[in-house]
Every structure is written in structure tokens, then in C-alpha cells.
Amino acid sequence: MNIVNKLTFRHLKENKGRTVITTLGICVSVAMITAVFVAAASFLNLFADIDFLSSGHRHAILEVDSAQLQQLMDDDRIERVGVRAEVESYQIEGDKSKSARTGDIYVGDKINLEQMFTIGYDGTIPQHSNEIAVEEKFIERNNLDWKIGDTVTIPLGMRYLLDESGEKSYIGGGYFSDEQFEVTEIGEYKITAILHENPPTRIYGSIIRGLDLDGYVIPDDEPVSATIELKEVNHDSLKVIKSIISDYNIQEYNINSEYLTTMFAIDENSVTAMSLLPLVIIILAIIMLASVVLIYNSFGMSLSERVRYLGMLASVGATKKQKRASVYYEGFILGVIGIPVGIVAGIVGIGITLKAVGAQIIDSGMLNGVSSENVQMSVTVPIWAIIAIVIFSALTIFISAVIPARKASSITPIDAIRQRQEIKIKAKKVKSSKLVRKVFGYEGELANKNLKRNGRKSRVITASIALSVILFLSCNYFCQMFTMAANVGSMQYQIQTTVLLDKAEEFCKQLEDVADIDDYYCVNNDFFELSEDADKENGVAQSITNADYTTNGYSKFFDSKRMMVINYVDDEDFNRLCESNGIDYKKYYGNTARAVVLNNVNHETDSEIFNEKLLGTTYHYTYAAEPIDIELSDFVKYDSKNYICNLNPSNCISLYMPFSTARAILNEGYSNKDFLYLIGVETDKHAEVTEHIQKIIDENDFSGGYVSDYVEQMKSMNVIAFVLQVFVYGFIALISLITIANIINTISTGIAMRRKEFAMLKSVGTTPKGFRKMVMLESVFYGLKALVFALPISVLISVIMNKTVGSTSIPFEFDWKLYLGVILAVFVIVGLSMLYSVSKLKHDSIIETLKEEIS
């Protein structure tokens, strides 16, 4: 170790307080960087497990003929090829509802079923065409006594709907209340396995049949699906699959890009890649910026403390390179300590967070039947993540040290001895305004002169506070935009049920008898995508997308594609909505189609999107092949307590008109027997009510009847909101920690460097009370000076973010409460930091301190 590095190391040991604070700052920075990479790796691993469980262990599904299938089986790039044949339909005998007894049979060979059976099951996988696996819930729902080893008969056939002319339309998938079934044969099968809600096959049906490939001939007009697994899965897997597709001229395929993304075989269309990677880059940039501000100030203060001895080294022949290297060496020493500690702290911290967040995600049921019984959120720390953490952390420390190192290299012996680097100010520049003395007294004048006289030290403290405030406010606004743009909202109703209009009155009477239903109402609507160009053929209106009709805050709202929803609400509820907004509802009934417009799209603020110019314009679209013009007549305000205002998600343009008017004018081409009536049901007991409504539909044979429980979707949305809040507020908390540590570190170091100055003030008779007053006024001046720069810059940055990266449905609004809180926090933190730092000097001997500085 050379003499310069030895002196640098000794300097770090002598200034333990600043060294510890700087090291802690590095630890926090590294911990946050670690959290980003470990969270990304862990989520990628979770997504891989989830994809395996929910969609099967296959890398692609290829639609092939017999020749292509044989080519795939002979390809040395492929590990296994499974075969999935065309599904079959069934309707078993029994006294349960047809919806419980009717469905489709999934058909696959042994390899395919091994790929698709991803959770535990009883028995063995069906291997032959006369063997089946059955879902346990299917057996329970139909009160069957089926068990493994039994041979059962199942009527097979075709499911179909009849149109007005009596023509058959063959169907599959979910059950329709008015569907018919035509038996074509009676199948006899042996049950070899009982499934427990196997996710990949559950969407196809409750019965899974085996397939003998020996002797199986692929129909010429119905190619089979080949599910392939590659021998090697890595970042080149996507290219390999595309090469296979090209080599064998396969026209229809489905690549499991989400799974391959987790192995870094990135597809530009991957939802995971397009959502996770940009977010990681943005968060890393913010963390590095915050960390650079903190660590740079620490190095700057360290340089101020070492000016004299660096000048002395220069006087005995130290080169610029050696002086510059001393700063980098300091960064290296602190990094050697801070990076490992930060990595460990980051892994522990994000591990605890991911366990909680992962459990919420998995137990929500939002991931295709995946539960905590078959997948766990594990903390994954791959070697690439460790390498990336070290690189980014080292880069952060290096960037922080560049400017101080350059300044250190330029220190001359004369500048160092006279401290000209620290105090570069003429006497007249120190002169204070008479107003300052009049308002704050002698101590205030002295405090103001101290700020001016301290030169770079004062500027470093002021800049540190200002940058910390800017960083906190800007990050807070970014996170606020992120959560508002990703706002999943909440559904006003828990259940949606449907019935044909001619049966609606009878159906609603039965709903009134269900004790657990709190309320129900019409939720019929039509969705349309808006465009700038008027197109009467495709139902697009120019008037709504014209920026002349939007308020200033939403001038760019239509830069993105937007949806408009026309809601046909119950007449009585529409009348009440109009009355609450001072509108005459009578004009909305008759032969003219009119609608009111909800003048709000974000459901978060009271800001209005449209101005008065929109009123009186018409929206044109086509319904049932008939042209329709709807006049936009009045605005209604958003009311969070009115279900009508919450029928549509945020970012949509919401229109409302009475259901009777819509039925009379807009739907003349449909009879009551053809028109579906949609009902939203509010209840606290969604599962019981859903089952009750399904029973009503089955027992009364309500044609077109259907019921859907939205609570599971709601649960998923709430989990998304929870995850966002955990990471966003956790991020803000850590940024706050960095900014507070930055202020405390800078001020405490600055105070420690002024021991001689304070000793001199005490030596000429400054009283303890006057001294404390001077220090407090310095705190006020530091805070005021920093806030004068920080607040306007923060507002400007927030406005720029809103205009460039923010959602156009979120106009910029000045959060004065947050800014007021930040102003108070700055004065409190600066004041307490200065008082605490000064309190540590109160026992210093004046003579010893002056002698120490002179020696």
C-alpha cells in the first residue's frame, strides 16, 4: 500500500462518523439495487413455475399433419413431442342440471398428458383410448359413485344452438342454457385417474381421455396439436422454435413466450418482458441517481476535510494521478465494506417482502388455479443477479467519486495551506442586509454571513438539501402516477347475470326473493373504440376525439386509443342521476336518442375532461346494421356513491341513457326474445348468491340465462393494487431514508469542520443562548435557500413527467399538502441535525480546539 493510500485509510479511521454514514448510504443503495434484481429474478422464477402449473410443461404447440408430426419426433433439437387430438362432447345421464352434466372431453396421448398433468392426482395417467381421468369435483357435483378402476358409459355427441331458421350451430366450451345435445355414440371407458382441479386441462373439460398413437390416423382436414419440449432451454430457445417452425413449414402455432421469457429467450410481444424490464430500468435509474447524490456529497465533504494534507502531499511531489487515486481508493474501501453488507441486507429485506407479496398473489386465485399448495414464492439469487448488483453498485460509487477525484487532483500546496478552495469570497460579499439584522438580530446577521463565508461547504449543504427535496418529490410524483395509471378500481357489483328480455320481469321477481341480494340493476352497455377520423360505417365519432372539446389538463388524452361506453341504465336510476345534476330528464325519452356524459375519466379527482363545446354534438355508430346518432346533451359529475358513475373502468368515456329509450330507438332490429338483459347484483355473500341464481336459471329454464361471480376478479384486482402499494411505498420509504441520511450526513460533517469557527465565536463572548439562536437561524437560511431552488424545480420535473411519461387521463395537480409537509420536514430535519451536531461540540475546550487547528 503506497503512502497516499495509507493516509487515505487513516483519514477514514479518524473520521469514523462520516465514514459510517457514507458506508450506510452505500449499503442502502446496494440493498435497493439488490432488491430490484432479486425481485426481478424471483418473479421470473415464480412466473416460470406458474406457467408450468397453469398451462403445462411445453414450449410450443404446433398444428401439424402426420408427416410434420413424424419430422418433429425425429428432430434432435426436441426432447419430447406430445399429441393432442380434437376434443369430444358429452352429456351424461342424471338428475342434475344440464350445465353440470354437459361438457367436452380433452384427448391426448401419454406424453401430452404427462405434460399437462401438473398437480397431484390419484391413479395413473390414461394411456389408451378406452381410459379416462375425471375431475373429482365433476364426480361430486353430479353425485356419481365413480372411482378408479370403474368402467363407465358416457354418451358422446354434438352440442349445438338453433338459429331463427332452425340451422344448427355446433359449439364447445362453456355451457349455454338453450343449447341442445345430439348423441352419436355411447363410449365405454375405464377410469384410471382422479384429478384435483388440474389447471391446464380444466379449461377444456372435466374428463380427459387417453390416445393410442399406434394406428391413429390424423384426419386430412383436422391437423392435431403437437406439444413440444426442447432439449435445451436457454436464451436461444425462441430462435430454435422459430427455426423448427420454418424448417417444417408449420402454419399455425402458439409459442409459450411467457415461459421462455423467464429463461431470457425474450420475445418483443411478451407481456412479462414488456412490463417488467422497462420498470426495472426506470427504478434502477432512480436508485442510482439518489445514491449518487448521497455518496457524492460524502466524498465532497471528505475532500474538504483532506484539502490540507493533499496539498502537503503535493508539496512533496505527489502527482495529480496519486491525489485522484486517493479519492477512488476511498470509494474502493467503502465499497468493499458496503457492497457485501448491502447485498445481504437487500436479500433479507426483499425476501421478507416477497414472501408476503407472493403469498397474496398465489392465494388470490388470480393465476389460473394456482394455489399455495402447489407453488411457493421463493427468493431466487442467481449468479447473474449478483454480478449485475456488483457492477451497478460499483458504477454508482465510481460516478459519485469522479468529480471529487478531479477536484482533488487540482489542489495545489498554496491553496491547501490557505484553504482557498474552501473560502473564495471577498469582504464585501460577506456584507449582510440591514433587513436581516433588523428581523433576526445580531445572531441572524452572523448566521447569514456564515453561510456566505463558508463558500463551498455552504453550497454543498444547500445543494444537498435541494437535491434531496427534488429527488423525494419527483419520485413521489412518479410513484403516484404509476399507481393511478395502474388503478384497477373496484367493481360496483359482485355478480353479473343475464337473461333474455322477454323473461327479465319474471327473472327479476325471483331475484327479489333471494334474501342475500342487497341490490340489482341493469348493466347493459356497448363499447366502442374512439378514433380521430369520423367513420359512419364503423361507428367512430370525430366530435368526441377532437382536442378542442377537452380541457387544458386533458389536451393529450386522445393521443392514445380510448374506449367509450354507452350505458343503458334503469329509467328510475337515470332520472335520479339527472335530478342530482339539475337536468330535466324528460327530454331523454321519446324518439330522439340523447345521452348524458360523465365529465370525468380518472375516478380519482374532480377534474373535468370536456368543456361546454362538446354539448350538442352527436356521436354516430352502427347497431344491428342500422345507423344511430346520439346527441350528447348534458354533463353529469362523478359521484363515488352512485353506482351509475362506477359502472365503467377509469380512462373510459362514459355515456348514459335510459334503458327504455335505448330499447325503443337503438334496438328495433331485435325482438325481446333475442335481446339479452344484463343485471348487476350487489351482495356480501357472492358464492351463495351465485349458486342460488344458477339454480333459478336451471330450474326455470331461463333461455340465455348465465351467471358470473366477479368477486374472484375483484380479488385479483385488489392483489394487484396491494402489490403495487407494497413496492411503491417501500420504494418511497427507502428514497426518503436516503434523502434524510444525505441531509444529516452533510450537515453533521459541515458542523464538525467548523470547530475552529465556533471556538472563536465562544472566545469573543457569544453566549450559549445566542449561539443556539445563530445555529437555528442558519438552519432556517439553509432550508429557505434550498427550498427556493428545490420546489420550483420539483414542480417543473413533475409537470414534465406528467406530459411525457404520465397517463394522459391524469392531469397535473399540485399536491400542496405534500409540499407543505416537505417544507416542514426540511426545517425540522435540518434544525435537529444542526443542534445535534453542535451539541457534540459543547464540551470542546476553546483553547485546545484553537491549538488543534493551528498545529
How would you describe what is shown here?
The chain is built from 26 helices and 21 strands. Helix 1 crosses helix 11 and helix 10 (271-315) packs parallel to helix 12. The mean pLDDT is 78. The longest helix has 45 residues, at 271-315. With 855 residues, it is an alpha+beta fold. A hairpin with a 5-residue loop joins strand 6 and strand 7. It starts with a helix and ends with a helix. A six-stranded mixed β-barrel has the order 2-3-9-5-8-6. A six-stranded mixed beta sheet has the order 14-15-19-16-18-17. The chain has a four-stranded antiparallel beta sheet with strand order 13-20-12-21. It is globular, with a radius of gyration of 36 Å.
Major sheet, described briefly?
6 strands, mixed, barrel
Mean of residue pLDDT values: 78
- The fraction of residues assigned to DSSP E strands is 15-25%
What would the principal axes of the Cα set say about the shape?
globular
Question: Topology of this structure?
Answer:
Blueprint: H1 3-14, H2 16-55, E1 60-64, H3 66-74, E2 78-91, H4 98-101, E3 102-108, H5 110-116, E4 121-123, E5 131-135, H6 136-141, E6 151-162, E7 168-171, E8 180-195, H7 199-202, E9 207-209, E10 224-230, H8 237-247, E11 252-255, H9 257-261, H10 271-315, H11 320-363, H12 383-409, H13 413-418, H14 427-430, H15 434-453, H16 456-485, E12 495-500, H17 504-512, E13 517-522, E14 524-530, H18 542-545, E15 562-569, H19 571-580, E16 594-598, E17 618-623, E18 626-636, E19 652-658, H20 659-666, E20 676-683, H21 686-700, E21 706-709, H22 711-752, H23 755-763, H24 768-804, H25 816-839, H26 846-854
Parallel strand pairs: 3-9, 5-8, 15-19, 16-18
Antiparallel strand pairs: 1-10, 1-11, 2-3, 2-6, 2-10, 4-8, 5-9, 6-7, 6-8, 12-20, 12-21, 13-20, 14-15, 16-19, 17-18
